[in-house]
Amino acid sequence: MTERLYYTDSYCTHFSARVIEQLTWEGRPAVVLDRTAFYPTSGGQPADQGMLGGLDVLDVIVREEDDAIVHVLSGDDPLDFPKPDGSEIEGVLDWPRRFDHMQQHTGQHILSAAFEQLLDADTVGFHLGAEASTVDIDVPQLDPAAVEPVEKLANHVIWENRQVSVCFVGQDKAATLPLRRPPAVEGLVRIVEIADFDVNPCGGTHVARTGEIGLIKIVRLDHRGDETRVEFLCGDRAWRDYRDRSAMTNRLSVRLTVGYWELDRAVERLQEDAKQLRQDLRRVRKRLLEADAAELVETAVTRGPYRVVCRVLEQSSSFSEELPGELRRLAQALTQHPGTVALLTGVDERTHLCFACAEGLDLDAASLLREACARLGGKGGGRSHLAQGSAPPTAPAHIKVVLSDLASNIESNDKG
Q1: Of 178, 192, 259, 261, which is most buried by a Cβ count within 10 Å?
Q2: Which residues 6+ apart lie within 8 Å of 93 measured at CB?
Q3: Across residues 2-9, what is the average pLDDT?
Q4: Residue ranges of the domains in the chain?
Q5: According to the model, what pLDDT value does residue 304 have?
Q6: Which CATH architecture has domain 3-93?
Q7: 377-397 tens-digit pLDDT
Q8: Bridge-based pairing state of the strands 340-347 and 306-314
Q9: What's the pLDDT band for 409 if we cut at 50, 70, 90?
Q10: Would you say domain 98-243 falls under CATH 3.30.980.10?
Q11: CATH says 291-413 is which class?
């Protein structure tokens, strides 16, 4: 079995080892060593990375059948690692990644112990992610106000710079310890103890003193049935989060010309102003549509009992925002005038069509739309008084020809 150097020294970043097996793992060269400082993916903690024998270590995996640690290396061919069995090689860990994991994992121990001590809430899951870490707490709908004392206690333990010690004990000895959760392994149990605060079985990597964590910050609560997922940041991650949030707060304060402590009230005022502006805009658009509709009706072409309005709105039009909706609103405004038939189109990334008939007309707008779509290569549908569809982008000149033909023959579409 591979000797795990990280069990006794999480700060070991350079080591030498002997090759005992070479293999291919999912198409990449891989190697098993007699000893390693590379932590494998396990217990919610990702694997270490670094260099081994001049190649990048991409992943580290515990082989289930014999508990050997397999180092998956860069390269596409096993020959990329030309080291015979028994040869000595050097390993170098990516220390910033390892230390980050040490901060997050030790922070998780402290946070979980704080939840247990203050809220009698157990941790039932842990994940150390690339950007943030989470613990799942067996409390539904965890109140944010109840979390504040937990976070405060966790940070006080960090600032007290308590010692973090590691030892191995047998099962009988483990049974006498005040463990936060029972061990999940047989035989010797690796115990991680935070002085006078937490005792827990764990195989991960940890800092030597809590002060090295620096800070722990809970950033999100996600309620999941009978549990609450708590997202948190430790150490450098917490500092970077504070840096980014502070920079954003300062930028917003400058743009809104208020102090950061007034941002919430400034945003509320902006939301109220925006709501009022939207209401004003709707009223103005309605009046504009009514005026435009009245003007268009005056220029309508008379075909028997019908006054036909044909119009092509292009993207530069004042109605080009939300074209389908604007076409529908304009059509509805036009058909408030008795005897009016609206044949409207708009062109942006597609050709939009909206046909409508005033109340009381013996005409089927949906039938007119299907005829237009057949000529423009589109599709659509609706009811006899209002129908909409779309077609591929079409030259306005061609659309006008289609509308003109429909207007000229509109009497032939009478339902009677």
Answers
A1: 192
A2: 12, 13, 14, 37, 38, 48, 49, 50
A3: 94
A4: 3-93, 98-243, 291-413
A5: 86
A6: Beta Barrel (2.40)
A7: 999 999 999 999 999 998 989
A8: parallel
A9: confident
A10: yes
A11: alpha beta
